[in-house]
Design a protein that fits this description.
Helix content is about 15%, strand content about 30%. The chain has helices at about 1-20, 35-45, 60-65, 70-75, 100-110, 215-220, 425; strands at about 140, 145-150, 160-165, 170-180, 185-195, 230-235, 240, 245-250, 255-265, 270, 275-280, 285-295, 300, 310-315, 320-330, 335-340, 345-355, 365-370, 375-385, 400, 410-420. About 35% of the residues are buried. Bound molecules: heme C. Heme C binds near residues 70, 81 and 98.
């Protein structure tokens, strides 16, 4: 017993001695770039901040030190990394937010002169698949023809049908869309058109077209409605799709991808040739991922209303596991939320986001949520049509659903996993829970 005390005492003394010598001015040593800052940049920033990506590179010491003050400021105000979910509701596996300790490290580093430190203490450089944020794609499907973009005016939604040339069925684990001219793209939706589908059959393949270019009534109508599954939705700031293991998107052999592009004129002529990279699942998954949506296209937002509420709700026809959310609105968007409505009327919030047109993110549930057939999901959007919304192009307009950004939209996309042999049609037929095992 006596002996233990002695050791403890000695240990205590060394501790004291250690603190006394290590920091004579009573403050911890300054964090350094290589030892403390680079690991944070790698983990939270370089997916966007590296050469060839959307923002200035923060990879080398020179690049980071030149922006040290801005880095500290952007993380302190939580403008970077971009994330708009209210932290009180839900946990999301793609939440890139920094911990308070990480914010302190970046702030202290900038405040103490942004020192380099010893390059031997650097973590190994990250290896990115060149040009992609998913791992090296198994197939890259590129628009056969580039889309010419006018310098001014509205650009109608532009479509291009890209044959996959897949001669066997494919399960897709990851997918990423890359415009060649990112600044022009307001959003893109990629649909999977299986060989049996009649959708847009009169439209040309491998060349861009708009609704107006289609001669027949049926084709023109088809551009506005489809029940085809969606492979991926893209908008500024959105991340690539990486579905949990055992769950994947299905592309039947012989399918085409139909890409719908919403371009914006940027004051100069340009072209865009978008590509889609896909990584195949290593084995057939137990579940198939479907992208569904809660949409309300019947609203009228009164002029100057600063808090106009629009909702959509729907009940799940069959059991499904909820995986992720992707809200979509335009310039007047303010807030968006997804809720579960329980049988007793209780409303359980699943996600609440502050809207920012520049950052249309997806929110992947950290724990996929199994839901029973009949569960009611609700999406609620709020709009600010007042003059105090800096993005509002005209507060005196009554605003309705429309394709251009000065019109509005209300779409709550969400991904669910269902039995592997259910497509959208079968999923929407009630009572399809006991589906045959995956083929
Ligand atoms: C999802 C992509 C993305 C991530 C992740 C990201 N950034 Fe950014 N960042 C951008 C883009 C795009 C800009 C360009 C400026 C703009 O349009 O706001 C930017 C701008 C900046 C700027 C300069 C302008 C400003 O807002 O101060 C700084 C500094 C910055 N980012 C730091 C960071 C740091 C530090 C991290 C990680 C902790 C990070 N960013 C993570 C996309 C990202």
């Amino acid at each position: 017993m006596k002996r233990t005390w002695a050791i403890l005492a000695a240990f205590g003394a060394t501790l004291l001695l250690h603190t006394a010598t290590a920091s004579p001015q009573n403050s911890p040593p300054a964090p350094t770039f290589y030892h403390d800052v680079l690991p944070i940049l790698q983990k939270h920033c370089q997916n966007c901040h590296r050469p060839g990506e959307m923002a200035m590179p923060l990879v080398t010491f020179d690049q980071a030190t030149a922006h040290a003050k801005a880095i500290a400021e952007s993380v302190n105000t939580r403008r970077m990394p971009p994330w708009l979910a209210d932290a009180n509701f839900g946990h999301f596996s793609n939440d890139p937010s920094l911990s308070p300790a990480e914010i302190n490290t970046l702030t202290a580093w900038a405040a103490r002169g942004a020192p380099a430190g010893d390059s031997r203490s650097a973590p190994p450089a990250l290896h990115w698949a060149r040009g992609w944020n998913i791992s090296s794609p198994d197939a890259v499907l590129e628009m056969p023809r580039a889309v010419p973009l006018a310098p001014e005016g509205d650009i109608d939604y532009t479509y291009e049908i890209v044959p996959t040339h897949f001669n066997e069925d494919r399960w897709v684990q990851m997918a990423e869309l890359r415009p060649s001219s990112r600044e022009h793209v307001h959003h893109a939706v990629v649909y999977i058109r299986p060989p049996g589908s009649k959708w847009l059959r009169s439209a040309p393949v491998g060349t861009p077209f708009t609704t107006e270019n289609l001669a027949d009534e049926r084709g023109r109508r088809d551009t506005h409605w489809t029940d085809s599954d969606i492979l991926i939705v893209y908008a500024p700031g959105s991340s690539p799709e990486m579905w949990p293991s055992g769950m994947a998107k299905f592309i039947p052999a012989g399918s085409d991808l139909v890409i719908q592009m919403h371009y914006m004129a940027m004051g100069h002529t340009a072209t865009d040739r978008t590509s889609i990279g896909v990584v195949f699942a290593k084995e057939a998954p137990g579940q198939r991922v479907l992208t569904l949506q809660l949409t309300n296209d019947h609203f009228v937002i009164p002029p100057r209303d600063s808090d106009y509420r629009v909702e959509a709700r729907g009940s799940l026809p069959n059991d499904a596991t909820l995986l992720q959310f992707f809200p979509h609105m335009h310039w007047r968007g303010k807030k968006f939320e997804y809720n579960l409505i329980h049988l007793d009327g209780r409303i359980e919030p699943l996600l609440k986001v502050r809207w920012d047109f520049e950052w249309q993110l997806s929110y992947e549930l950290a724990k996929p949520l199994p839901l029973k057939a009949g569960t009611v999901l609700q999406a609620v959007a709020w709009y600010d049509n007042s003059g105090s919304n800096p993005h509002n192009p005209d507060p005196n307009q009554e605003v309705r659903w429309g394709e251009q950004t000065y019109d509005e939209m209300m779409v709550g996309f969400f991904d669910v996993a269902v039995a592997a042999d259910l497509d959208k049609w079968k999923y929407f037929m009630r009572g399809n829970n006991s589906a045959a095992p995956a083929q």
